[in-house]
Batch of 2 targets.
Target 1
Amino acid sequence: MIRRNGEHPVEKRENMRGGNGTVEITALEKELLPAQCRLFSKIVLRPGCSIGVHEHTGEAEMFYFASGEGTVTDDGVKIAVKAGDSMTTPSGHTHGVENTGSEDLVIIAAIARD
Amino acid sequence: MIRRNGEHPVEKRENMRGGNGTVEITALEKELLPAQCRLFSKIVLRPGCSIGVHEHTGEAEMFYFASGEGTVTDDGVKIAVKAGDSMTTPSGHTHGVENTGSEDLVIIAAIARD
């Protein structure tokens, strides 16, 4: 099944997980996802925007930073990240992410059962 | 867990699934993946290179085309794709992909149980 650029559902979330500003999530519809996967999406954070720190339970999330730069909070530790880096957050761990750069921070994210 | 650009294992596969040329796969190590996920990777196909048609069983694969353009074979049907498009291949279905453009075709791929 092909979904063209522009055909994917786009959700704009304000203050996501207690973060700042708006997060734009371009996602595959649930019925297109593998049974053990609940998210495969492009996440765009404009400068200054963030997703607040939160925990994943029974699932793990993987981030691939496609462009831009930012600061993640990885189990309470702040770390600078940029394009080409990846981040994994297993079940029982916490993370958050903030765009601390001057361009959009673009993340490809997937969540699967863990 | 952060993996920096350049720290991920990179595998170069020749004639992958019967395809042409070399496919470069930059992947997360297995121990970093969710239990129900067996791949989260960046796949780079240089012009003319391809991954041959193959079936997924008991798992589904998701592609996000990050840059470039190419032609996929989706259950036997050839379809042109380009940056921003996505492709999903559920369990029991087949797919292949070829870089038919003049620049690298870059794909972010994930495979989870289905």
Target 2
Amino acid sequence: MPTRVAIDAMGGDRAPAVVVEGAVEAVQQSEGSLHVLLVGVPVEVEPLIPAGMEHIEVAPASEVIGMDESPASAVKSKRDSSIHVGLGLVRSGQAEAFASAGNTGAVMAASLFTLGRIAGVSRPTIAGYYPTVDSFCTVLDVGANVDCKAEHLAQFAHMGSVYAERVLKRTNPSVALMNVGEEPGKGDEATKAAFELLSEATSINFIGNIEGRDLLKHGADVVICDGFVGNVMLKLGESIADVLGHFLAAEMKAQDLDEAQRRVVKSVLAGVARRFDYETMGGVPLLGVNGNVIIGHGGSTAAAITQMILRAGELVEHDVANRIAASLA
Amino acid sequence: MPTRVAIDAMGGDRAPAVVVEGAVEAVQQSEGSLHVLLVGVPVEVEPLIPAGMEHIEVAPASEVIGMDESPASAVKSKRDSSIHVGLGLVRSGQAEAFASAGNTGAVMAASLFTLGRIAGVSRPTIAGYYPTVDSFCTVLDVGANVDCKAEHLAQFAHMGSVYAERVLKRTNPSVALMNVGEEPGKGDEATKAAFELLSEATSINFIGNIEGRDLLKHGADVVICDGFVGNVMLKLGESIADVLGHFLAAEMKAQDLDEAQRRVVKSVLAGVARRFDYETMGGVPLLGVNGNVIIGHGGSTAAAITQMILRAGELVEHDVANRIAASLA
């Protein structure tokens, strides 16, 4: 039986068109292993589905939460939104995972409300990806929790370790605290206390503190920080490729390169930029709720939606939510 | 009369040799406008000074604070260290500025102890540089203060604005808070409260929140954050050029470039890397103490030391410490 992934057909800046397009591609790529439920307003979504497609259907929702709506009020007032309905399908067992490129705050709040927290998790977290010289690392938290206590950071470490081992296939994944220095005793109050908690944890491979310069150099498989630091790092990383293009253009001009030489530099840069492109991974997991949830970029293209759905399938395949529950039990 | 800059001849991984070399170069470049006091152990420093040099002399200090010593205890026990003596010269008016590539924590602690805080400053701050598509911006704080309250962040904004206007020659410099979103109301508790304080400030050009992706795009002339976030961003930035070299090498291999094409890419990369090289700026100012202090990288080369001394001269020329005092009065 195929894995059933519910996708928020109304979520994202270019929904529902790009969502349906990305979902169709995901179904085709999965060769029967995925069944996609397009959650949204039928009259808007149905006409977009190619005739005769198998493994794709519409799950009706009458309301839409806008990208800029206040999550707190929208989650309370729009109980038949595509986000609520999609998460409800996971809760009732009609889908094994939910993915959305919609309002991130609303997805988080509705996930907590609909699915609840895993026992032992105070705060669910979003695990981001960061390209490194080796491949990539995962960073938790990347914006869900801006004010964190030590125990929250320690829980992120446990969740990230399970995720890296199961989904990212890292054997005994290394876990490090992002900090202002490598020595124990460095950092703000929360980080110092988290260092103590993690030093005592036996079920994870805690390797200590790393610094900002270690992130891109793959200082660890799993990098732990509060959502403020993680969000700043992630967005800074996303901008590198863009800015690099600007710097390289200025430098090519200064060095007076000819057209053929410029083409070489641009082609190499394009290869590097792909590493920093969120489309490659599509979306990031919301960890710590009782269910598998993937959150995508509001600006997601069809290609990014396809990747989000595949990532959602991976969470199910590797039973991530249950394994996190077991790890924290 | 030349500006007298005291430099810590014993500070840095390769002191005193590179410090003396850098100081000699600074004096030569300044063409009589700088007089350098090499603060250190005379028997180690004097033999390194070329015969017949003018505008360079040794200021004796009998002790050295190591790079890895605990600042708190070293600052108390080694009162005749090169750091103490150098700052003492500033306090007594025998020098107008002090620069050190030594133990940063010790320089900060000794600066507070010897020079004291400017009235209205709760916490002195280190203002870092960040390359941007325009030129560069200054980021405060970059590691001096990891746990910050809103009023500390607001003070950083005032100090950074004076520095950017006077030394960096920005007219009405834009000041922004680094945050997880652009909208007012975003962020952790300290940042949200700092937003309120800065919105009410009439003497600075506060433009609101910026995000990690705006940093390299020159979102503001002056970027305000706590020292944890600033330190992570700064070190991440310092690593970009290195890591980029690695990514480009992998990409050149993948695209099977020939030797001539590789040379073009490497030459362009070298130009970009210079933007991220701390040697270009040399050192960063410690703002908020009653005196002009420049802090350098422990790994400073002679070229970086030269730049540090020139930066120290600029602080004096633009009367930065007094102007900060006036701004906060």
